Every structure is written in C-alpha cells, then in structure tokens.
Amino acid sequence: GEDVEQSLFLSVREGDSSVINCTYTDSSSTYLYWYKQEPGAGLQLLTYIFSNMDMKQDQRLTVLLNKKDKHLSLRIADTQTGDSAIYFCAEGDDKIIFGKGTRLHILP
Amino acid sequence: NAGVTQTPKFQVLKTGQSMTLQCAQDMNHEYMSWYRQDPGMGLRLIHYSVGAGITDQGEVPNGYNVSRSTTEDFPLRLLSAAPSQTSVYFCASSFLQRRELFFGEGSRLTVL
C-alpha cells in the first residue's frame, strides 16, 4: 500500500534554513502536500506541488520534488521561532496519506 | 463561515459502548475524511467520501463506520469502543478539484 516516510525530529538555529525530507511510494498522485500542525491544533496546508513540477517557491518556502527517487523536500528560509511545529508530508488524490510528521525545534 | 466543526471535543467511553463523532462543514466541499492521530504514528486515514452517498475505506477502517447522506455531514461511528481506539480524531474536507484539506479542531476520545 501507499506509504510516506519522514524523519521525526529536526533542530535548527534561528535564522538558518530548515530542510525537511520525505519519501513516498505512490507515484500516481497528482498532488503532494506539506501541512503544519501547531500544538493543540488541527493541520493547516502550507503548500502543495503538482506531480509534474520539480520545484515550487512560495515566499520563504521552497518545495523540491524528485519523481525518479520519489523524494519531496520542504526548505524554510530564515527559520523563525514561529516556525516551531510539526510538519507533515502527504500524498494522494482520493486516499490522502500522511507521514508521521517531523517536529521542528528552533534553537536560539 | 464556521469551516469544519467537530463535536464533541472530548469524550470518555467505557469498553463496549458506542458513540458517534459528528463532523459538519459549511464550505460546500465534496470531499470529506476522518483521520486518527496517535503519538509517533502521524495521521492515519480511517474513511473518506468523495460525495454524498459515496464512502470508502482508508488505512485503518476496522471498528469504524461512516455514512454520507448529505454534502455537509460526515459522522464517524464507533459501534463497540475498544481501548485501542483512544486517540485524537480529525475530520477534514476539501473541494474535489483541489485537495487542500481543511481540518477541524479535533475530538479527543478516551476508551477505558
């Protein structure tokens, strides 16, 4: 079945770039997504990329997609304390499958 | 707009009891889904629906039933609760053409 894998923790110094990586198995998905979850809240869509794109930039966020390796990454430039959250990679059209989430910790 | 509304926010059940988690959205979204979130497990898809009268199973459907009689509502039923169903449940919805999921605030269920 479909599977999405991502590392569980990432620590980054404030002002540096954060890179969160994800691998997935379902190559038929039209979309791949990045969601953010802050403590005690539901998830919010950060950004998404069509499967026929290699890169998408949205202000401080850059998404890179390597379809050959089924690898998706999210880069957050100039990481701030407000970026501290859990980040989820997801893929799928009808059956949207999430990874376990990467907890991003910001060091002062 | 209220968005996606889940009720109740908290519930404690005894093993074997039944209950229904309610989910309603006012955005005219065709797609609705239920997830459970457990520590270290991320979100796991329970059931989803692409429109009224259509439902399908996700990754972990056992022990849960759903129905979609209207576009707005997508209730999740636990027929005989088990401690393994202790979790935080999230309902989400989106348009079919663009799968930007809007999530509810979650329902925390404890089964004793």
What does it look like?
The complex is a heterodimer of chains A (108) and B (112). With 108 residues, chain A is mainly beta. In chain A, 0% of the residues lie in helices and 56% in strands. Chain A contains no helices and eleven strands. In chain A, strands 2, 4, 5, 9, 10 and 11 form a six-stranded mixed sheet that branches. Chain A has a five-stranded antiparallel sheet with strand order 1-3-8-7-6, with no helix packed on it. In chain A, strand 7 and strand 8 form a beta hairpin. Chain A is globular. The mean pLDDT of chain A is 93. Chain B has 112 residues and is mainly beta. In chain B, the strands form two sheets. In chain B, strands 2, 4, 5, 6, 9, 10 and 11 form a seven-stranded mixed sheet that branches. In chain B, strands 1-3-8-7 form a four-stranded antiparallel sheet, with no helix packed on it. Chain B is built from no helices and eleven strands. Chain B is 0% helix and 52% strand. Chain B is globular. In chain B, strand 9 and strand 10 form a beta hairpin. At the A-B interface, strand 4, strand 5 and strand 10 of A face strand 4 and strand 5 of B.
